[in-house]
Amino acid sequence: MRVLPGGVLGGYYAPQELAFIVREARGARLVDFSGREYIDYILGSGPLVLGHAHPAVVAAVEEQLRKGTTYFQLSEPTLALAEEICRAVPCADQVRFCSTGTEATFFALRLCRAFRRKDKILKFEGGFHGTHDYSLMSVGPRAPKAFPAPTPDSAGIPHAIQDEVLIAPFNDLSETEAMIEAHHQDLAAVIMEPFQRLITPQPGFLEGVRAVTARRGVPLVFDEIVTGFRFAYGGAQEYYGVVPDVVALGKVVGGGFPSPRSRAGGTSCGTSRLTSTARPSSSPRRARSTATRSLPLPAWPPSPSSGSPERMRASSRREPGSRTDWRAAARTAGLAAQVAGEPPVFEIFFTDRPITDYRASLAADRELHAAFTRAMLERGVVKAAGKFYVSLAHGADDVDRTIEIFAAALKAAAEATH
User: Fold this and answer.
1) Could you tell me the domains of the chain?
2) pTM reported for the whole predicted model
3) pLDDT at residue 257 above 70?
4) Which of 197, 232, 281, 375 is a good FRET partner for 342, with 20 to 30 A between their CA atoms?
């Protein structure tokens, strides 16, 4: 509390009386300085698909550290990673490495603005694309405006930015198509999470957005900071079968290493017709980005043949990833609940309304959810305020224990709020 604002890093908040400091982590478990162990479903906010301190990652990092750290120049491992990303990700012809996921989405939009020579972007209500000014519009408005008007989510954002951002409703194809048709001459890009936070796309929605953007020549940007290499080796665009023009990657690619030292804490990649605007030149039309430190840490060792995303989905279809069983447990506790998401990333919402868009999530009982999250933490399961991330490190013992804690936490939360 003395040296950090609020005594936190900014991304995870526990009640002060339950706050702890991590001593170490292995696999799916965290250990705090009191020696207490937790089953971890935060996983560094998602990137640790292999769990904490995976032996293959540790060995690769140790080997590379002996060869030097920050080169600030092109290195062999960096080139190998770029080639692997281009092989794996359907839309990727070329790659620009960034330091963070926020920078990746920011630079992806800059690429599109340079290419189209337009300023406006369209994003979807509830979609989160980092903490730059364009992104922090209508991420979590408590009183949403009529579409397409944006609502700033932070103080300090220039008012002029509001005039450059249009907001569309996720999973509403007719409204989205009408908005793009009406504004396509001014649009630099449409940016979206194909799996928006925890909301799965309705059948035909992604395909429809892709069709109208292609028809009108507006670049489509997928933010796959969460879904890249997690839903499939080629990301959500492979999983859902819809290919954008540009994709922003992060988390998994950087392996959770701190951004200033990460070779690829964030990555923007896409078709060469768009990425060509990032080529070094003296032209004022060049889309500039910051240079990464190029620390060549091999943070993602599995090959496509290892089938890691597929194995993770298969293992997480059992609890804690079974929607039917979770809803049944909630009913046993006398609670209405929906489980939103996909097996590798999901969350429970305390409402009887299906979670098909951001505004549907506003009907959920936030007080009950906070009590549930607290009860989970008290019993040794740590999760972010808004989602569970599942990793390959979560074994049968972790799952069995989570199921027990989940049922107990539901009962405790119901008793605390009713």
Assistant:
1) 5-40+307-417 (3.90.1150.10), 66-303 (3.40.640.10)
2) 0.87
3) no
4) 375
